[in-house]
Amino acid sequence: MIKKIKEAAKSKLSTFIKVRRHLHANPELSFKEYNTCAFIKDYLKKTGIDEVKQIGETGVLGIIKGKGSGKTILLRADIDALPINTELQTDYKSKNENVMHACGHDVHTTSLLFAAFILNSLKKEFTGTIRLLFQPGEEKMPGGAPIMIKHGVLENPVPSAVLGQHVFPQMPVGKVGFKSGKFMASMDEIYITVKGRGGHGAMPETTIDPVFIACQIVTSAQQLVSRISDPKTPTVLSFGKIMGNGSVNVIPNNVYLEGTFRTVDEAWRKEALAKLKKMATSIAEGLGGSCEIKINDGYPFVFNNEKLTKRAKLLAQEYLGKENVLDQEIWMASEDFAYYSHLVPSTFYLLGVQNNNKGINSGLHTPTFNIDEKALEAGAGLMAWLAINELKE
Q: Is residue 246 part of a domain?
């Protein structure tokens, strides 16, 4: 079986490179993936997949049935792009202004289409059912995963496992990475409006300076990480946006902040956000101003089932070679794959796409992100191999 999968992955690589380039050139933002959805449905039908269903507005579920009844597993890929203007100088760069597959979801989608092709060609050789979920909206809260779950992708029957992968530009092409247990962080969005009283920059005594107050909040809030959190619990608090809209000599009335809080402990997550609200309010009031705080609850942390991940890692070593399967640390990025992982035994692993010799090493969410497309061969082949073996388990 492993030989058949590897031969199929190698022989069809050029075909699916074209698929990936089409997707990369035609990205669509979260929950607006209408053309991507149509492309996926059409491709699955042409591949001869047993059943193809549209889930919600832009999700797609394909179903491959083996030679007899048995277990059901689910393979998941996300399909949406980011609001980033590409700086790639390739013939397959994004055609859509300020929209780009800068997080590799085109790779995830192509890998799953590629795996579907391989699995469908081998369906007379395994028992059970494989669901192929192409999920919208991973990059935008509330995330596409809870919508897919609401539409029943984890029901009738409940899958025995959910598998997913994510490109990782810090890892060389041909390698993959696994971590059991807590893997990726929860993610909450923080919006703070600091209210003061503006005035002339030369007469700060006549103002209640919201810029100064905002700076105190940003600086003091880091105590949540450095002095209040358990050092053994990974925690990140970052503010990425501060808007004052004053000028060289004008103190504004208000300052607007946006940030993110991430951790891998749900109890600490709740406690920390409550402390942040209290801290920001107290600082603002103590300096004569006020603040409004809005926190959008985001994704929980990704949890990789220990037994499933151990099996997957051993199978990956068998498929790719032990030297190409790496142990990962906790990654403080977030993923709505987390919702599946809290309901069904799941594993989410990393796929290497870096090639320094070709200058392919830009990070995720950057306008120059790209991949060594040979990663599709490893990504699709390994996913097919894991799926078939998990049906046997």
A: yes
Judged against a pLDDT cut of 80, whether residue 177 lies above it is answered with: yes
Residues 66 and 94 in one domain: yes
How many CA atoms are closer than 13 Å to the CA of 145, on its beta-carbon side? 25
- What single DSSP character describes residue 251? E
CA 365, CA 104: separation in Å to the nearest integer? 9
The residue from 28, 138, 139, 373 that is catalytic is 373
Mark whether 14 and 43 lie in a shared domain: yes
Q: Are residues 232 and 380 in the same domain?
A: no
Domain of residue 281 covers 208-296
Tokens of 274: 């409550």
Q: Is 373 a catalytic residue?
A: yes
- Which CATH number does the domain housing residue 281 bear? 3.30.70.360
pTM of the model: 0.94
List pLDDT tens digits, range 269-317. Answer: 999 999 999 999 999 999 999 999 999 999 999 999 999 999 999 999 9
Q: How confident is the model at residue 68 (pLDDT cuts 50, 70, 90)?
A: confident
Active site annotation includes 299: yes
Q: What is the DSSP string of 19-41?
A: HHHHHHHS--BTT--HHHHHHHH
Mean pLDDT of 316-326: 98
Catalytic residue among 43, 299, 319, 349: 299
Kindly give, in sequence order, each residue whose CB lies less than 8 Å from that of residue 372, ignoring residues fewer than 6 positions away: 173, 353, 354, 355, 358, 360
pLDDT in tens, 378-390: 999 999 999 999 9
